[in-house]
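As described in the Methods, two query proteins were run sequentially through the folding procedure within a single session, without resetting any intermediate state between them. The first query and its resulting structure tokens are shown here.
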Amino acid sequence: MMIEDLFRRPYHEYLNDIIKNMVDGVISENEVLVREIKEWLESDTRKSMLVGEAYYRNKTDIREKKRDIVWKSNIKLEHGFAKKLVDQKIGYLLTKEPTIATEKNQYREQINDVFDRKVLKTLKNVGKEAINKGIGYLYVYFDERGVLSFKKFPSEQIIPFWKDDEHTELSSFIRVYNESIYMNGKKQVLTKIEYHYPDGIKYFLLEGGKLVADVPAGIEVTHHFTINDQPFLWTRIPLIPFKYNEEEQPLIDQIKSLIDNYNTQASTNSDLLADIPQFIYKLINYGGTDLKEFLSDLNLYRAVNLDENGDLDKLQATPETDATEKELDRGRKSIYEFGRGVDTTDANLGNASGVALRYRYSDLDMDCNILETELQASLEHLLWFVNEYFLMTDQGDFTKESVNIIFNRDIIIAESDVIQDCQNSVGILDDKTIRENHPWYNEEVEKRLEEQSQKEKDEYDNYLSTFKEKRGGLDGQET
């Protein structure tokens, strides 16, 4: 043994220190959740979501406009461009009932039963959420009757943890929301936390920057649903993202500054018109005591007292607003250009031909094409849960069946052009595909066609049967 070994710390003590430092450096799962929550609540992404929601409700920054002089007007004009553009996209793409195209009629009928009007309304609202906030979320759950159901979660409440860089599927997520309760006769607002992970859901309350167990909510559940009192977990996180675009960027990011400028210009112009009087009176040697008496005499008697060599003249104020009006026109065009919408106040829109209308709608159509691509990917994800539901409830195994959801767009184009295109496709495409792309096609039309086809078949069978009977009688007479 060397002399320096006598003064060296024993190895086990050195190893214990290493382990202690490692343990001290590792934070608990709850601490990680708290850090993620604090970071999310202060993030620019969440703030942008809240701005998008506010501007959709026409609550804009013009409300912060101040006046520098007491007597000046402080008019605050808000223009609902954001709401109009969002509703235009939703109305164009998601208000009409989609067409479910699949080879098996039973499968189509079962999907239609799931996608009832309530679910279609929820999907429309999730689409609106995606445009306003960049991304929307649809939660999959079973209601109290054991029926597969869907709920929209406000996007600002969701902290996603993605499995991949392209943000296609979640590995887990946190939901942060406030809930008001009455405790001891007083109203209190609780910050509730739900941590959804592959093994279930944990429930917390955020108090003083720390997570505490939410006992009334159940603390933790290790299943998503039950069938015949048997607990089950989805093999995927039951939250489906619906994106506005690949970047998850809300519409408001493109148009906020343009809307703010338009509101400012319009409000400032209104202030100018309100503060400049229509007429200015010029008085020389006025015989009254003050201006109040002058205005009273003028309004009451249509005359005023003047001293010797007195005179009264009227000057008309004509404020120049042409430059402001031109700026407002430019601003409006920019909002619709970069918001990718259609300005319905365009005087030439009503007289436009079918080709011209397609051109006017090209930006809206392009934006909705991008949105539809994202929605199709999300609906494919949604159908996975629907197929699993059918399988678990013994309604059939459709996991290998192909299905196509066709969005029926609502655009003011000449429907005759679309109908002509369908007619020109006869012999090139099958009849079912042509019907599904016809502007008047829906499930009710398909049912009527099937009934009509069956009726014609029955009539032909009856005719053929009657003809054979008569033919048989004639043959008997001849013999």
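Immediately afterward, the second query was submitted; its sequence and tokens are:
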Amino acid sequence: MDDALTTRCGGACELCGATEGLTAAPVAPREDAVALCTACTAQVAGGELDPPHLRCLQSAMWSEVPAVQVVAWRLLTRLSDTEGWAREALEMLYLDPDLQAWAEAGLAPTGSGHRDSNGAELAQGDTVVLVKDLPVKGAGFTAKRGTAVRGIALVPDNPDQIEGRVEGQRIVILTRFVKKR
């Protein structure tokens, strides 16, 4: 590890705080790096996730270091399908648009490409919840925030859209206005 990174991290993993086996892990696609222990390095590189170990992300996500925020967002996104605490942490985490683009650029493309407002992968038949009031054009009503939409259908040619029933009407909903339940 270079001296600047060692000074910044204080000789500890920037995610979990471990002091043994530190290495500098690049945060693609930029040149930035974070100091990680052996366990965190394996998980960041795409290895099997260890949710109890990664609970450290609940504090690491508030780091002032942009590269640490990006790594935390990526790991939380991977965990959010199976871990409720990770989904909740993602809901609290705000990245400015540049950091968000950096974080998303490093995710491996998988599945349909349909993602909710927190970056969680959406699948056919999932249940989602609206995150804001949405006026429904042509139907004369507003779909209220917090409304559950069960059994969604993915729009095959547009990863930004899903279909679902709200108040008996089949409507198209933008994925940025829903979160996976």
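The domain at 128-180 is CATH 2.30.30.40 (SH3 type barrels.). We note this only descriptively and draw no conclusion about the first query from it.
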